[in-house]
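Below is our example:

___
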Amino acid sequence: MIIFLAAGCSTAGNNAALSSASKPDITLAALPTADLAGLYIAQDDGLFAQQGLHVKIEKIPSSAAIIADQLKGEVDVSAGSYIPYILAQAAGAKFRILAEASTLRPYTRVLVTDADSRITTISDLVGGNIGVNGTNSIGTLLISALLSARGISPNEVHLVTDSDGFPAMPAQLQGGAWDAAFLAEPYVSLAGEQYGERVLADLDQGATLNFPIDGYVATQAWAAKYPQTAAAFVRALEEGQRLADTDRAAVETAMRESDNLPSEVTAVMALPDFPVGPVDEASIQREAEVMHQFGMLGSGFTTEAEQGALVGSMISPGS
């Protein structure tokens, strides 16, 4: 499903901001999750328009699904998991993290099973299939950490990607597609409200407690070519992030409108933290270290992963 949203009409003040933005029209690829509530609030409240920007949001199943298009210049900014971008950076691509979107909090990323499932413990997953919105993404890492903490090799389960992403996954699980599913809010709550599906495990624990989840990423070439646009985008986004962090009603409204969700779902969904301010390099560095721990980064990147050079190259403007 692809939905396009445009920022509101410009005012005289917006036109002044527009003249300072070197690329006023932005195509942004984003996951339809509560982690990006700051983005949806900024859109709904006209905060991008106030900066002279017209933002078109394209819904995607995972950030991994859009990287090729972004490298070809068909997408300006992507909003989703850092992990596919760290992997792409290790492979030679050059991306820039413009801003953070979310940090893991209890029950914002979970494993869910059908209400009548034979799976009642983590060990029951051995040999089973787990639906994910994208392999080699945050779900892969969180599931690997959970299993390893229980003494189970991640290779003992099978991750199956659903090309339609989180919105389709609760129904797929109900239909018997997998033994369990990796879900994000508000689809965790949707799974419970509409299908009676139950949480098997909260992934905010152990090595991934308070883990950085999603961010806003552009290519380094785009950020260098359009620095004023990038700065204007971040200014508007940070206002949205502040609202998301302090006004739950604004988050619920934004999520209802972004994916046509019922109020009984958005009213009970768990929320992540919404970071504001410069990108926290030490926080993102945790991802590279855990990725290396679970073999997502090849042995050739041990030094870069452990010393922070890989993540640093995605944050420092001079890299």
Remarks:
- The first helix runs from residue 12 to 20.
- DSSP finds 15 helices and ten strands in the chain.
